[in-house]
Specification:
alpha+beta; 5 strands; 2 helices
Length: 116
Amino acid sequence: MSVEDCIFCKIADGRIPSERVYEDDTCVAFNDLVPQAPTHILIIPREHIDSLDKASATHKGALGHLLLTAGSIARDRGFAENGYRVVINTNADGGQTVFHLHVHLLAGRPFIFPPG
């Protein structure tokens, strides 16, 4: 898939509307359209990176920023103390369905480990 066809690139640049909960120069966070928990937020880098497997050392700052943003959103929205899960699915066997790196921030219910 080309960057021009990537749904998350279109969300990041505003060509596709989303229910944004946070944005800055590095990332955009928005509510998942098919939530797997009462709170299910996707955090995406504005720069297109296919997957965590395709990230390189040049992406170190953006990757750290995505995780720090997840924690910040959890604290700002009041669910950090009860707990939350952060997931990055990578490639097909890892459950990735949109090939633009994204962080799932899930909260509002207990999560078991290991996941299915």
